[in-house]
Amino acid sequence: MSCRLPPALNSLPRAAARAANHKSSKVSAGLSLSRWIPSRHYAAVVPPVTQDKSGSKGPTAMVFLNMGGPSTTGEVGDFLSRLFADGDLIPLGRLQGYLGPLISRRRTPKIKKQYADIGGGSPIRKWSEYQAAEMCKLLDRMSPETAPHKPYVAFRYADPLTEDMYAKLLADGFGNGKGGRAVAFTQYPQYSCSTTGSSLNELWKWRHRLEGKKSDDMSPGGGSITWSAIDRWPVHPGLVEAFAQNIEATLRTYPEDRRDKAVLVFSAHSLPMSVVNRGDTYPAEVGATVYAVMQRLGFKNPYRLAWQSQVGPSAWLGPQTSMTVSEYVKKGQTDLVLIPIAFTSDHIETLFELDKEVIAEAEHEGAKGVKRVESLNGSPVFIRALAEIALDHLKSGLSCSPQMLLRCPACTSERCLEQKRFFQAQQQQLTAPA
Amino acid sequence: MSCRLPPALNSLPRAAARAANHKSSKVSAGLSLSRWIPSRHYAAVVPPVTQDKSGSKGPTAMVFLNMGGPSTTGEVGDFLSRLFADGDLIPLGRLQGYLGPLISRRRTPKIKKQYADIGGGSPIRKWSEYQAAEMCKLLDRMSPETAPHKPYVAFRYADPLTEDMYAKLLADGFGNGKGGRAVAFTQYPQYSCSTTGSSLNELWKWRHRLEGKKSDDMSPGGGSITWSAIDRWPVHPGLVEAFAQNIEATLRTYPEDRRDKAVLVFSAHSLPMSVVNRGDTYPAEVGATVYAVMQRLGFKNPYRLAWQSQVGPSAWLGPQTSMTVSEYVKKGQTDLVLIPIAFTSDHIETLFELDKEVIAEAEHEGAKGVKRVESLNGSPVFIRALAEIALDHLKSGLSCSPQMLLRCPACTSERCLEQKRFFQAQQQQLTAPA
Predict the structure, then answer these.
(1) What is the 3-state secondary structure (H, E, C) of B247-284?
(2) In terms of domains, do B131 and B227 share one?
């Protein structure tokens, strides 16, 4: 028997491998992978409203995954302790259990003050719940056969946590012997093991804890929730359009004779070089987003991609956003447009780090032309893009992208391996006759 | 007077600044920057043959820039000594003059042996001369008004060197009081200060040495050659199509049931982290190329971007290609397709490093399915893409992309600054009435 499995699954037991093979041939025979190619043009095709309140495949739970943030300063301590406990995000090795709590306790007062400075908490829950709800309304019209689409949010480090979302799903009638369909929709446009990977690992963990043995029963009708994942969408034309429109809005605030000379500084959260060198796909996908946005903007302005929010003494991917801004200011370039490119809602890294540190510092140095582009937040263009991405995914019949099933070359995480096995196995339930 | 100059030029003397301002307003008024956006679809539009042997704007010198390689093993010593003397490529700081010759002398015997192993020399001169000549034939038909297009090659470290190319240009009737038009066409699809930047710096140096004071005379009809640069083309649809076709050809050599499971390992030359952290644009542009190629391929296969050819003890961008291949082989993934993605012709890094080191090592470990995709070399799809890129450039009337005029945030190179000033000033000659 020739091996038809991706590398992550080559050590599956023989029976499971046979099942996966069987599934795999079904997939290649019956499903088109071309749905994974974002359409070239951004055209929102909304069919006439013919919503069937009980679509033949509905209801569908649409679960937005993100890191989250404390909604009040009182939640900062718990938020940080979860964050520094996550080896997928901050790899501290065997010292994670000791160093994590130490670092989070030490940082809590400072970070509390930062959240107080931006109004007492992160707006990310508000935006996530709004985006998910609005997207579901659009989806109900665009895909009546999978309606109703029910919005959920699962944060990695703040309420609502993954386990709370999962408990709500079960309480709402999904799973528990009744089956049902859920889509894990990462809200990070570019995939990193530190972000989307960590959220999917957490989802896999709670699936096993809360659906117990049922989750191992892959036979159709086993009664557990059928999951699929939208794992990346870095150059979706609607995303690109939403970024471009916000950038153009900021550019219009400069006098016309300075407009084309302003430097666009795209800023993404950095990664430790240990993660980059392990083979994480995030830096290249951020590069793809930036190039796509610049294409849409006609390459009129000069630009750079920079990386922010480095912490600790280890090596991180650069150039750093703060250095980039201060060096350009020193060179006399004081019209700089900062564009958060890897996160779609406002959070501490935009509202505090960019607005109250980087821009304030530049202003202190005399540069008055440094501005930040608004985050996508409630952008209708963005929310329509989310609906189109979800629609493409639902039509594809795929449990995730082929790319997601491939581990990083230097990955040693067993949890990552198990999570990928789980999503690959979900393909079987997806392709089984209803 | 408000400042209309990009940061690199803010310290220009007042008169030059006024001239640049004047030019700048002309540019924004009369020229469309949208020519810099690659057309979305790869369609070769070749007008009927109406070649005017003396096109109204011709002749045009088309100068292919690349690093080059020794055509015989006897040239290896000179090649390496030039390479290690180049601070743009290998930044050794104040010790460059001492360490460069030391390292190159020490490495010469080993590298000589590598060139002997691939047939006695690099084929890059053969391919570059072929590509340039074939492209010029196409261009003569596609752009009769700028014909005849005359092919030249300028290598950074091997014959024909930049100074030899420049001397040939002058001997052929360009410059020397007679004016004339030349295009510096980088053969690196993605821009790095280490590669394209170094070649352009060298071109600027020899322009000054060989055209003397004339090169400072920016008035129309001053008699020196008018230069423009095609500085990057990472996602041109023709380039993407050429890569995709070669990848598909390699995938067809696998049995059908293994084809979609093969992992595509894109491999680009790495950069020292000091260059990445300075703000070099290359990593993000390579990421854009990879994503564009995967879009064209329909994301059917899992893939990774890896980086090769690291030397010395300092930190370089990873993951390393050799590590990526050996780790996947260890994980049981033995069908791997290596794709050189940042160089268009064969060279020591493909013919020796990938073929005789990485693949041979994998085969030694028992992996028989590791293959390399053919380099673009003589691909007619690729050569047509070059012609389309050149045509777009000639029609744009731009001396270079706005992006090229922006220095890296942490750049301290005076040569870089002067080179950018030079290309910006060329805009004046380009837009002057003939």
Answers:
(1) HHHHHCCCCHHHHCCCEEEEEEECCEHHHHHHCCCHHH
(2) yes
Residue A148: is the preceding peptide bond cis (ω within 30°)? yes
User: Which of A329, A315, A325 lies closest to A270 in space, CA to CA?
Assistant: A315
Supply the residues of B annotated as catalytic: 67, 83, 89, 156-157, 269, 346, 349, 353
d(CA B225, CA B244): 38
For residues B307 and B343, is the Cβ–Cβ distance under 8 A? no
Residues 6+ apart with CB under 8 A from B110: none
The predicted pLDDT at position B88 comes to 86
Q: What pLDDT, in 10s, does the model give residues B242-286?
A: 999 999 999 999 999 999 999 999 999 999 999 999 999 999 999
Chain B residues whose beta carbon lies within 8 Å of the beta carbon of residue A319: 276-279, 408-410
- Helical residues (DSSP H) of A31-182, grouped into ranges: 76-85, 96-117, 124-142, 162-171
Give domain status of residue A180, yes or no.
Answer: yes
Average confidence score pLDDT of chain A: 87
Structural contact between residues B428 and B399, judged by C-beta atoms closer than 8 angstroms: no
Q: How far, in whole angstroms, is CA B273 from its chain's centroid? A: 20
Domain count, chain A: 3
Q: Note whether A364 and A386 are same-domain residues.
A: no
- H-type alpha helices, A279-407: 282-296, 321-330, 348, 359-364, 380-396
Please report the pLDDT score of residue A159 as a whole number: 97
Q: Provide, as residue numbers in chain A, all residues whose Cβ is less than 8 Å from the Cβ of B234.
A: 291
Long-range contacts: B50-55, Cβ < 8 Å, 24+? Answer: B50/B144, B51/B140, B51/B141, B51/B144, B51/B147, B52/B144, B52/B145, B52/B147, B53/B147, B53/B148, B55/B143, B55/B144, B55/B145, B55/B146, B55/B147, B55/B148
Percent of chain A at pLDDT > 70 equals 85
A311/A402 same-domain check: no
Residue A1 lies in a domain: no
Beta carbons of A277 and B320 less than 8 Å apart: yes
Structure-token pair, residue A45: 């095709």
Distances (CA, A) of B155 to A68, A255, A260, A311, B161: 52, 43, 34, 42, 5
Sheet holding B335-340, edge to edge: B303-308, B263-269, B335-340, B369-372
Express each pLDDT in A359-414 by its tens digit: 999 999 999 999 999 999 999 999 999 999 999 999 999 999 999 999 999 999 99
Residues B367 and B383 in one domain: no
Residue A349 known to be catalytic: yes
Tell me the three state secondary structure of residue A63: strand
Residue A136 lies in a domain: yes
Instruction: Say whether both B15 and B147 belong to one domain.
Output: yes
* CB–CB contacts below 8 A, A to B: 202
Laid out side by side, the sheet with A303-308 consists of A303-308, A263-269, A336-340, A370-372
What pLDDT score does A57 carry?
A: 87
Does B181 have pLDDT greater than 60?
A: yes
Q: Is A156 a catalytic residue?
A: yes
Q: Across all residues in chain B, what is the average pLDDT?
A: 87
**Structural domain range at position B158:** 7-68+123-233+379-431
Cβ neighbors of A380 (< 8 A, separation 6 or more) are none
Instruction: List C-alpha distances in Å: B308 to B103, B324, B354.
Output: 19, 10, 9
> Could you tell me which residues are beta bridge partners of residue A300?
none
Cα B188 from Cα B348, distance rounded (Å): 16
| pTM: predicted TM-score of the whole model, two decimal places | 0.88
Residue B268, strand partner residues: B307
Length of chain A: 434
The answer as to whether B1 is a domain residue is: no
pLDDT tens string B57-82: 889 999 999 999 999 999 999 999 99
DSSP state of B94: G
- Residues of chain B found within 8 Å of residue A277, distances taken between Cβ atoms: 318-320
CB contact under 8 A, B6 and A302: yes
